[in-house]
Amino acid sequence: MFSRTGDPSWARVGIANLVTVGRLVLAAVLFVLLSLPLELRYLAGFVVFVLASGSDWVDGFLARQFGQTSVLGRVLDPFVDKVLICGTLIFLSAEPVFRHRPELFQPWMVVVVLSRELLVTALRGLAEERGYDFSAQPAGKLKMVVQSVACGAALFYLAWPMSLASPNGKAASPWLEFLLIASVWLMLFITIYSGVGYVIKIARLWRNLGGEAEV
Length: 215
Known about the structure:
The protein is mostly helical. It has helices spanning about 10-15, 15-35, 40-65, 70-95, 95-100, 105-130, 140-160, 175-210. The protein is globular, with a radius of gyration of 20 Å.
């Protein structure tokens, strides 16, 4: 529990990293809930998702507040974000409610998001392996916010008692319908836009190096 310096083991890991690990646990709980044939699984999933996505801001705040930024945090935090968002999108794309709605959570949309995440992860590893800065850009941070809104809106939509998921088949409230559709397409736009931004960034890096780095 304690190191030789007397610090507890959790202090060496960092409070921010512990919050990040907690977000990973919440993601696992969310996926289990969405897999169970429970009547309130969407409502419970919405609550868990809000807690998990909200903790992303908390761990960043704690890391800056206590000066606990670390290599582990830089790797762990985006990894957990990708697990939470991509996992949720996969479950949503499999929902029968969205299957016949081409404007909402189709499998090809999930492919776009996954492709962007894999590409940026590969580019970041390539750049940082050579000691170059490849920190998150504003568009990348905005992407996470928009993706969280889209996923949260979808879970709330499914939990809404008057949604298309209900037995009576009545439509959800117009504002919720609008929020869901708008956030999904904004998510796709900012996902592609931020991905292109990272590609341009690393292309400029290689060009400024005179092409001396092997790709």
